TrEMBL record:
This is imidazole glycerol-phosphate synthase. It comes from the Eukaryota. It holds the Pfam family His_biosynth. Belongs to the HisA/HisF family. It comes from Helianthus annuus. Keywords: Amino-acid biosynthesis, Histidine biosynthesis, Lyase. The keyword Amino-acid biosynthesis applies. It catalyses: 5-[(5-phospho-1-deoxy-D-ribulos-1-ylimino)methylamino]-1-(5-phospho-beta-D-ribosyl)imidazole-4-carboxamide + L-glutamine = D-erythro-1-(imidazol-4-yl)glycerol 3-phosphate + 5-amino-1-(5-phospho-beta-D-ribosyl)imidazole-4-carboxamide + L-glutamate + H(+). Its EC number is 4.3.2.10. GO terms for biological process: L-histidine biosynthetic process. GO terms for molecular function: imidazoleglycerol-phosphate synthase activity; lyase activity.
Amino acid sequence: MVAECLISVGTLCKLKNDSVILDEIANRHVYFVHSYRAVPSEENEEWIHPPAITGLTSISSIRRGNVHAVQFHPEKVEIFSDVGLSILRKFLLPNSSITKKSFEGKATKLAKRVIACLDVRTNDNGDLVVTKGDQYDVREQTKENEVRNLGKPVELAGQYYLDGADELLNITGFHFEVHIRECFCTIDSWRWHSRFTDANGRYYSSLEVASEYFRSGADKISIGSDAVYAAEEYLKTGVKTGKSSLEQISRVYGNQAVVVSIDPRRQYLTSPYEVGFKSVKVTNLGPNGEEYAWYQCTVNGGREGRPIGAYELAKAVEELGAGEILLNCIDCDGQGKGFDIDLIKLISDAVSIPVIASSGAGKAEHFSEVFSQTNASAALAAGIFHRKEVPIQSVKDHLLKKGIEVRM
């Protein structure tokens, strides 16, 4: 039997100053509708928040470190929606005097995310290192031609978590995710091997490989070349086969667990009608004065162009089950001159799922630029964070000053 009741949360928020999420709802009501409950005990007493509520024998709220959860439904019952909105606002905008001052009187939107990209690879000695490529070239231009080493991945991941990164995106194997789960932020495994056969001849499907990554601690899986091929086939036939890695993983684990990585190159045009793909009028003219460009998608690390545009690919993968798009512009990678605003605006306007802007960040102003001029939900950087040229916290402080909401 499902029990439905309204319970006053009077003493729930009259506690210590760290009761951030439940502030401002004293003597209000919340809605419980469950057929189960969690009961206080000696084993969980450190998690219970607050320690006790008069007349209630089940746990309604827990808090441990930066994890804060409630048993009741903030979103239930329209007449209590202001209570729910208050809780959700507190979740999105933690108790920061800077945050409160910056957004006083303004409607709250989803906070923009700042992501640190850990390009983790094995160097020539077999050690895992964080590297950074210039348009996919990760080797130093020296006589030794060694893999560029910008730090140890686990140490950098821990530091980025403390610095305020909202997500960590990495290219590596299972064991790295396991070591950095203490970071308590989203971990995204990017460009994983979608299927393989081990030394014993056993074949692992894309779904089995993804399952291993999730069990190892990854929160999301990013799919690159596989998604391009699946989208091309879908656009040809109009049929969802359900056999692609994108469709299988999103069906089993949910769309939110699947990110599609799009790696386009800018192709300039003298007329928007030169190709059968969506083009844009560019902000900066091409080398021969071209006013238009389309964005050709690539596979295999940018080495092979495909007959599909970034716009067409983005629309197709959203229909196939992608929950997010990681949008890289190979032309801007490693340049430090800013994101490709034309590309990011094109794609973030075309889809309803979140878009992560990637490639080109060189200073904090580039983040406010992309957030103010496009609908990107997040922005990513690598080298400037690894080399400590631009600290993550300075990016967030800058965004707050510009009136752009971020999680502190």
